[in-house]
Amino acid sequence: MHKTVSEAVQYIGTIQSSQLPEDVEAVICAPFLTLPTLQNKLAGSPIGLGAQNAHWEKEGAYTGEVSVHMLQDLGVGYVILGHSERRTYFAETCEQVNKKTIAALNAGMTPIVCVGETIQERESSRTFDVVASQVKKALNGIPSTELPKVVLAYEPVWAIGTGRASSANDAEEVIAYIRQTLTHVFGAEIAEQVRIQYGGSVKPENIATYMAEPNIDGALVGGAALSPESFAGLVKAASRVGEQA
């Protein structure tokens, strides 16, 4: 919940003057109020536009909600679903995340589905069980042919906004397990096509260490993306890793 419309316009202007490399799929997931303005500002740009949440119903008596259908009509191509803050502060369930994911896919949007464990779950050695369960429930009933359109984001709850990042090795271990879970459910060929990101205190200074891991396909960044200069730094650092691969 950052940036007024005028602040978002200034933010985009700075980013667009930064000459970002185009070999990285970069997406800005912004608050609902800023989306119409940003959609116009980003028209023809290599930067994609996403929302931070959506409701699964097309319309109805859901005061205060925004549907996937409304976002699609606006030209929004991506939507973050099941972020830990939604799960923690708004009691969002895995079943609701599943409904939202299906609705986003049906609308032709790319769902960015978040999973991750709390510090209590990590310290009790439940990380793998918790994350695998969240992945399976979020993707329940989705045909395997649709899976490559889904982006998964592993965001350990204890690393979000705390400055306490998971090490690249730890993140790789969990994300490799997520891919193994996908393999068991959907088969190896499909599992390899699903993009899995890491999120949690990612910065321009450390993103390369994550991107260098074989199973980490990208980063879902919060606080470090609030500065346009930092956003540009993240994209440029990711591009350099790709050039070295």
Structural class: alpha/beta
Total helix count? 11
Total beta strands: 7
What share of residues is helical? Answer: 40-55%
Q: How many individual domains?
A: 1
Order of helices and strands: HEHEHEHHEHHEHHEHEH
Spatial extent as radius of gyration: 17 Å
Give the name of the CATH architecture.
Answer: Alpha-Beta Barrel
Please indicate the percent range of residues in DSSP E strands (runs of 2 or more).
5-15%
Spans of at least 5 consecutive residues with low confidence: none
Tell me the name of the CATH class.
Answer: Alpha Beta
What is the CATH H-level superfamily?
Aldolase class I
Distance separating the two termini: 35 Å
According to CATH, the fold-level topology is: TIM Barrel
Question: Average pLDDT, to the nearest integer?
Answer: 95
> Largest sheet, described in full?
7 strands, parallel
Using the alpha-carbon principal axes, give the shape.
globular
Annotation keywords:
TIM Barrel, alpha/beta, 11 helices, seven-stranded parallel beta sheet, 245 residues
Summarize the structure.
The chain is an alpha/beta fold.
Question: How is this fold's topology laid out?
Answer:
Blueprint: H1 5-16, E1 27-30, H2 35-41, E2 48-51, H3 68-74, E3 78-81, H4 84-89, H5 94-106, E4 110-115, H6 119-123, H7 127-138, E5 151-154, H8 168-186, H9 188-193, E6 195-198, H10 207-211, E7 218-219, H11 228-244
What does it look like?
This protein is an alpha/beta fold. It has a single domain, classed as TIM Barrel. Helices cover 44% and strands 11% of the residues. The chain contains 11 helices and 7 strands. A 7-stranded parallel beta sheet has the order 1-2-3-4-5-6-7. The longest helix is centred in the last third of the chain and has 19 residues, at 168-186. The radius of gyration is 17 Å and the shape is globular. The mean pLDDT is 95.
